[in-house]
Amino acid sequence: MAASKRVAVMIDLNYPVRHHYDAYLGIQRFAKECTDWECVLDPFADRNIGVRGRRSYQGVIARATTQLVSRMNKAELPVVNIWLNSPARRVPGVFADFSTAGSLAAQHLVARGFDRIGFLGSSRDRANQQFFATFKSEVERRARKCEMLSIPITFSRTEKDWHDTLDKIERWADQWTSPMGIAVGDDLLCRYLTTICQDRGFRVPEEIALITTESSVELCMYPEPSISAIDMAYERVGYRAAEALLSMMNGEPAPTEPTYVQPAGLIARQSTDAFAIDDELVSEALRFIAEHAHERIRVGDVASAVATTQRTLERRFKSKLGRTIAHEINRFRVERAKRHLADTDMLIKQVAAASGFSDANQMYEVFRRVADTTPSEYRKRWRD
Fold it and tell me: Which of 56, 78, 87, 354 is the most exposed place for a label (fewest CB within 10 A)?
């Protein structure tokens, strides 16, 4: 079948960043499923629309500029924006959900016992704004203090900007009191921060735990320590943007509110592989639970592993965490189940077995209680 819908994709792929390439992949996956789409990479679509003798399109998915939106409106053609910091206004958009990411990061650091928590990013970046708003709220809701160091959005544009930013971060680092958990606005900045931690003599993760949003697997993995990160599901952003564009090209009204695509999940790595609990017995028990929850351990197994009585350990858990040992076992099992549900096509009963539950029924009850949703609903939500 000949292509009947010619769509421009205005994403600059000269910059090797994951969110550009993954969004492009999502768009291409949708186009392949449609069969009648022709996707044309056109980084200058904002200059070509409406110009005689140049390519014509039925719609555009773009990191939208004001010029593009103006020309598309004049031509009465639909456009979907995937650039959260776009200066264009009142244009349909599909974006990664940084608000949910901020909540996930806060929960991750709080669950590891950090009382001192900070955020490094730019107050002018909308993604950082959304992340920090829920991050701060989640931290303070648990009676922790949260501070933010804001840096310029173009912190590495010039050599002077770069050195000024490093100096500002280093002065902040000189005021830290470890142990401390820090969320960082993007993974490149987080990698720079690991170097500053090492230069200042802070051990990661024992003294400073770091978490970020992932744009590059390579940056997060190398060199050690590997960095815990939230997968922002950029491929799904591209796919949903293509869905929205098709609807508009078919005559449906443009959505009046942006669509936010939830993260694919949190990937825990070395940079948060520590528990900042001022009780070595509880820290050791938490570490054992994290490593063995999927093996169907019981509360008594945890107590035996740290050479104490169940009663003593239960009392110490409630004193330091305000939670029971069983609650922590279930929480780790649910987190493992979430990763399987989001990243694999395993059957529910297989997910239950791989996550440490006795059967699918037990997982259903625990999952619903801990995550406030069912396993099937969770999988559907993350894959929509």
Answer: 87
This prediction has a pTM of 0.82
* Environment class of 353 (CB within 10 Å of its CB; exposed 0-12, middle 13-18, buried 19+): middle
Q: Which CATH architecture has domain 280-383?
A: Orthogonal Bundle (1.10)
Q: What is the CATH number of domain 98-231?
A: 3.40.50.2300
Phi, psi of 133 (to 5 degrees): -60, -50
CATH of domain 5-96+234-265: 3.40.50.2300
Q: What φ, ψ does residue 7 adopt, rounded to 5°?
A: -120, 130
- Show the tokens assigned to 327: 């609650």
pLDDT tens for each residue of 183-236:
999 999 999 999 999 999 999 998 999 999 987 888 888 888 999 999 999 999
CB atoms near residue 364 (< 10 Å): 16
- The pLDDT tens digits for 303-318 are 999 999 999 999 999 9
Question: What is the pLDDT averaged over residues 1-11?
Answer: 80
